[in-house]
Amino acid sequence: MSFPIEPRPSLRFEMSFLIVDTIFRDTGPVTLVVKINGHRLGSVYCQHAGNYRFDRPVPLNWRRSGEPLRVLAEVNRLWTSPADGAHLGYMIEEAGFRW
Q1: Domain around 27
Q2: pLDDT in tens, 68-87
Q3: pTM higher than 0.85, yes or no?
Q4: Cβ–Cβ < 8 Å for 32, 24
Q5: 24 φ, ψ to 5°?
Q6: Measured in Å, how far apart are the chain's first and last C-alpha atoms?
């Protein structure tokens, strides 16, 4: 994801996401890692299916004026659909920045 946000103090990244029961039955617990502009912001250990929330402050020195904030959120194990081979991990409900 890419967000065109100017640097400012007290900026936080928030994301609500869902680990689907069907996927969790095959993958078991997963860890979701969030990176901002290549820097690891944090992770969430998901030990059951259901809703999760990630909320962390973004260090000011990770941001540059005129450049978007690029967010990568990935899980350590993906589920492969037997029907079409699609790789799935989680569903984003909402994601963004607040200050």
Answers
A1: 2-98
A2: 999 999 999 999 999 999 99
A3: yes
A4: no
A5: -60, -35
A6: 18
